[in-house]
Amino acid sequence: MFVKARMTANPVTIQSTVTIADASEIMRTHKFRRLPVVDNGRLVGIVTDRDLREVSASPATTLSIFELNYLLAKMLVKDIMKRNVITIPAEATIEEAALIMYNNRIGGLVVVDETGNVAGVLTETDIFKSFVDIMGLTEGRTRLTIEVPEDQIGVLHKVTGVFKELNINIGSLASYTQPDGKLEIIIRAVVEDVATLTKRLAEIGYPVQHVAQIGK
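Now predict its structure.
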């Protein structure tokens, strides 16, 4: 799955000369949490709702509301925006985007095309939705967790072979290594006879650790 399929294309952008007050109004009206800042077609920064909150009134301020509003009306986006914007190509994968966001502890990425122009915005919500779709969580399938002692060669072939024997179509499959080195395999499929499936998997040495029905 690629970023271009999950991003919000043609996002609203603002210029660096826009006032903080106007930027705040745009975010509030459209319920955005971040706005790419573009001058003359070039990405020059990004401003987030957190940036705006940091320059807004707080109980500790000594300014009156009138003085604060006056300053905010004069202050420009370029005064508070982050200039080193972390971007990702539209052709990158969702996994790459998730890793960048995780490593940098950020909730969104500006997506750029091959020319470096802003093509979209990808948020943590888009990542979550992609995960839900990839894993088939809304399709009412049976979720099985199978723990394998170690990362054995051919284990997926053996496990999926049982599903083939029982004429069960696998909707999604994922695996990851746990801290203790064991491999956990998660399979979602439409399973009519769970008992027979779990019995067959146990017979070949891969007992099912957990079964759950994920509904809509």
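Residues 20-30 form the longest helix (11 residues).
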